[in-house]
Amino acid sequence: MIFRLLLWVALGVVAWLMLRPKQRAAPPRSRAPYGAPPPAPEAMVDCARCGLHFPASEAVRDGARLYCCTAHRDAGPRE
Ligand SMILES: [Zn+2]
User: What's the pLDDT tens digit per position in 11-33?
Assistant: First the structure.
């Protein structure tokens, strides 16, 4: 009788080992789990005057050229 009990306990352990959630197989957690997509990496541009590397959203435009500030735009491209 005791062997039958041990058999069921062993079967329970085996079933638990096979059915438990696998931690390694889980997909990595996102840094923003509540729907907000991560911000896209922003394009970087170079100032035509001083060569500074800065985000394109902060660029001061003069036609096709990009500058880091209005002073450099007014000074014109590097010679
Ligand atoms: Zn500049």
Answer: 888 888 888 876 666 666 666 56
Q: How far is the CA of 69 from the centre of ligand 1 (A)?
A: 6
Predicted TM-score (pTM) of the model is 0.49
Q: Residue with structure tokens 């306990």?
A: 9
Cα–Cα distance, 35 to 39 (Å, whole number): 12
Distance from the alpha carbon of residue 40 to the mean position of ligand 1, in angstroms: 25
DSSP single-letter state for residue 20? S
Distance 63 CA to ligand 1 centre (A): 16
Residue pair 53/25 in contact by the 8 Å Cβ criterion: no
- Report how far residue 19's alpha carbon sits from residue 29's, in angstroms, rounded to the nearest whole number: 22
- Could you tell me the distance, in angstroms and rounded to a whole number, from the CA of residue 10 to the centre of ligand 1? 73
